[in-house]
Amino acid sequence: MSKSNGKLSVKEMLAYGCGDFASVLYWTTFMKYLTYFYTDVFLLAPAIAGALLGWSRSLDGVTDVAVGVWADRNESRWGKFRPFLIWGCTPFAIAGVLTFTTPGFIDSSMGKLIWAAVTYNALMIMYTVVNIPYTALMGVMTDNPVVRTRLSSYKFIFAFSAGVVISFALLPTVDFLGGKNDPQNMVDAIVAKGVSSELATSLVEADDASGIIKAIVPSEDPQTLLDSIVQSNIPQILINKLVPSGKPEDVVAALVEAGNTSEEAEAIIQTGIPKELLGSLLAGIDPETSLSKIVDMEDDRAVLNVLVPRGNPQLGWMLSFVIIGLAAIGFFLVTGFNTKERIHPKEDKSSSLFKDFGILITNKPWVILLCTTLTWILFVALRSSIAPHYFKYYIYDGSEDAVLTFLGQDFSFTYLMSTFNGLGQIASVLGVVAILFAADKFPKRLMFIGLLSMQIACTAAYMFLGPNQLGLIFGLEIIGNFVGAPLPVLMWAMYADTADHGEWKSGRRTTALVFSASTMSQKFGWGIAAYVALKLLDLSGFIANTEPSAEVKDSLVQLMSIIPSAFGVVAIVIFLFFSLNEKKMEEIRRDLNSRRGLEE
Asked: Is position 378 within any domain?
């Protein structure tokens, strides 16, 4: 093969970055909102959602390696890696829409769980099929370590820019497409309950909660009001309010209190159909008692919110991912058609899967970097997975409709959460831009340790913040993201270095396998983090869409601070053993170029 000079045009680096913009539209959603979607929108119990994510991401970690092996052995006129982006992006987008669809035609809890498991795993498999070859593409575009760091910087500028888009826009888009803030949707919902259009319009324009309630339920009979509330809500939401702990033994006790025998109660639970369970919980209890458990009857606004729920979040999520899917397809195709694979190692006919794995696991710098990645991901993922719950249940005390004042502006949960994530992602973009200027001035190893130490300090400080200290909560997020954003840039550049090291030691290059096995550690980390976060919430007594207890709030604070920080410290300790520095990589590069020149 011919020797590469390592240079890349800005146009090609921008085209490469487009692929990560597409990927991170999904990855940021996984990081910041997936646990929230499954617990508060799809309405899976936290322990079940955590088990689903933990099991699925562990399974997906195995497919990473399989795709890596496949990509390393692929040959086509488009190259090894680019065909996966070109042909895989459309089924990937379709899987995304299905994952964020809540199937209204499925009644049972088990049916919904099966839907979630099938669609989420399909999405993650397609994510792997597209993203592993995309990531490996960086390793064959250039062999210059400094250019690789710059290319990695472009990659992450696009990645964090996608994070900005999702952070600022996803929840407001869900609200908009779901009709949450559209007064006409409220009017239509009231008219659907038998109120005239003229009266409904005037009451909504006047924001007269009491008047709307009386128009919908003229009778003061509690049973009539209860029946109307039941008709307006997803059964699982009302079940959570009637039995806040959600524990099976407490559900059985509530069913017995409603007039069922213990055997009947167990049989009702076994059906797994929320509508039947709700009917049984309400059947033997007087309506006033049931209403008092569901809502504060003295608060007209609270009664209106359960009588006429605002919008359709399930529809909003699905339509949002139709838009995201179309955008992702476009960005993946830009990458697929505007990048070039330059490093083409001579075909090794004696290679085998077992030999490739042997080369990988004996590549000591790669092993150390892999373990660093796993613990670093646990540090990042624990906090990201729980942030929406932290805001909704710690800062907003469980109410999405409450309003808090910050910097002279009133914020609902949706907009404060979006602003928090969005400002953090903007800080991340600036952090990645900064690393462009530092890439050839400071050793990667030293930068990694110093920046991670500062990010850990910012995270640990959340342990001491109260829900009203919004300035400090936002400030630490901005600083932490600025210093933390260069870490994956440095990490992926170092993974490319370990691929060179493996080829230098063995004579066999396994670029996609190096990156896929590394991505596997990330997914294991995300799976473990999601499981741990939701399991700890479940043990603290967390129930979605209800007022949190003191135990739940304490758990949220710890999951935002000291628990992830502990994993960050472990990551630094492991990384201290990483041995590839700039001097060593220059030696490896010269040797590899010499070998490749002899093969011309």
From this structure: yes
